[in-house]
Amino acid sequence: MFKGIMGLLAGACLSAGAAPAQQGDPALIRAAVLRVDVAGLPPISRLDLRPADLGFAGARLAIDDNDTTGRFMGQDFEAEEVASTPDAAGAELDRLLGEGIEFVVLLADDATTLALADQAGDRAIILNAAARGDNLRGADCRFNTIHVAPSHAMLADALTQFLMWKNWPRWFLIEGSHPEDTGYADAFRRSAAKFGAKIVEQRVFEDTGGARSTDSGHVQVQKQMPVFTQRAAEHDVVVTADEADVFASYLPYQTWDPRPVTGSAGLVPRSWHPAMEAWGATQFQNRFERLANRPIREEDYQTWLALRMIGEAATRTGSGDPAALREFMLSDQFDVAGFKGQKLTLRAWDHQVRQPILLTTGNLTVSVSPQDQYLHQTSQLDTLGIDRPETECTFQEAS
């Protein structure tokens, strides 16, 4: 049975146009996962505490998947795992580049991602598996960076399409006081204009510090949130932009008016969700949970997808040469499967991975965007995020 399955995999490799390598030592294809950890307050809920292997568990599953096909192709894959502080990240990147690693999956914030991409230059491809800032795909785009994580614009558009389908066009927008919150709120403002929603009122929730719910518990929150949200203009839905995880999770069932909460809490747009079951995702979830002994998180999925892109390029080209893999990944011939019902491809104008976005609650995937009624002349996935005519990215496109 095992040989039969592996034979089918080998046949799939051949049908993709790549021939198995000759007998001998396998070609080693090396990558690294660099996670830059920022010290801060714990999350609002202890259920959201960061696991020690966040991102790394996704990398391990991807390497297993790559090696399954790599055995027949004369290829061997590895990914070094590095957890760093912001101060040490530059030195760690230089060390990895000095070891000859030319693919670096990066889990970091927007500013660190941009700085490390500039530091890498033409020595490596940076696969951004965490940073969502639209500027990284726009005015601050870099040719050496592939964005596996969805952008703020993609997430906002995915949610907006669903809200408009529900006929909930009047929004009460609440944003946090951190720069990343403003970036997400700007994406919602742009998305509202794009799809015809109306933001009837906007408020900013100021982060005053402290240890959040542990200081005073639910009693204080129960008093604060209704007062904060009272006397808002008539609205259909509350839309929150709280990337810093300060306030949004407190809002459901605590707003002054009985309205759904969306955005950073309630109905949340995500790249992945541990309850996803369609399109073969159940098998993927089970394999991850056996490996990591926990449910998958978005950072794990995005890291897995980044490394699978490398593996797919190696399979399709039959090459272990980093330059050949990089050229193929940036070409219009590249696509990769991601358990989302369709092949995922790369936008030439900003190197963003096109992908459906899941709309989720705590336990369920409620819907998947793009919604059916939103069409596009090239790819329906390009209704999510910044399309070619709108881009501010000016690097030379891959042919």
Q: Helical proportion?
A: 25-40%
- Secondary-structure element sequence? HEHEHEHEEHEHEHEEEHHHEE
* CATH top level assignment of the largest domain: Alpha Beta
- Provide a count of the helices: 10
Could you report the average pLDDT, rounded to the nearest whole number? Answer: 91
Instruction: Give unreliable regions as ranges.
Output: 1-16
* CATH topology group of the largest domain: Rossmann fold
Distance between the termini: 43 Å
Overall shape: it is globular
CATH architecture label of the largest domain:
3-Layer(aba) Sandwich
What is the gyration radius calculated from CA atoms? Answer: 22 Å
Q: Give the strand line-up of the largest sheet.
A: 2-1-3-4-5
Q: What's the main sheet like? A: 5 strands, parallel
